[in-house]
Amino acid sequence: QAQLQESGPGLVNPSQTLSLTCTVSGASITADNYYWKWIRQPPGKGLEWLATITSSDTVYYSPSLKSRISVSRDTARNQLTLQLSSVTPEDTAVYYCQGNHYWGQGTQVTVSS
Hints:
By secondary structure, the chain is an all-beta fold. The chain contains no helices and eleven strands.
């Protein structure tokens, strides 16, 4: 079974770029039939889908974030990355990566000066 671990800075200044990494073990990110997602949950709100990257490296973005978000993968390290530019305090959330029904534990990101 896949195990996912998010990592990144806990605090980001407004207007900067947030970068997160999801390290996957127990499954290859290029394995067929895996869909890898980035999801976040702002405080007091529900889950928000951010992006999906497929095993064939096709990427889908949330329309509301498409101008600021970029996801990619490092097949050598079996990692997924998320970059979100021009962050504001509204981007404060717990960020998760998900592979099919497997979830990482999430990483808290706070945008504040």
